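sry for the spam today, last one i promise. struct tokens for design, 71 residues
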């Protein structure tokens, strides 16, 4: 397969104004609901915000996952 694997635009003066896009989606597994979930955005040039500041990550998060080691 030939084509772009990702598009990333980073504003070095303001890292919270960075954007990315995965044209084939978050998953390479064909049966996954996340397969090709970003293709339309790639074609429309509507990239996804890619935030760095902790406060902005907390503010924009849709879910929170906590990973804990098992003993």
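last one done:
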């Amino acid at each position: 397969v030939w084509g772009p694997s990702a598009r990333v635009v980073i504003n070095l003066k303001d890292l919270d104004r960075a954007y990315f896009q995965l044209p084939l989606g978050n998953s390479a597994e064909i049966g996954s609901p996340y397969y090709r979930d970003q293709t339309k955005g790639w074609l429309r040039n509507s990239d996804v915000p890619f935030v760095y500041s902790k406060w902005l990550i907390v503010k924009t998060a849709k879910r929170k996952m906590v990973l804990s080691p098992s003993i």
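DSSP finds two helices and three strands in the chain. ok im logging off now
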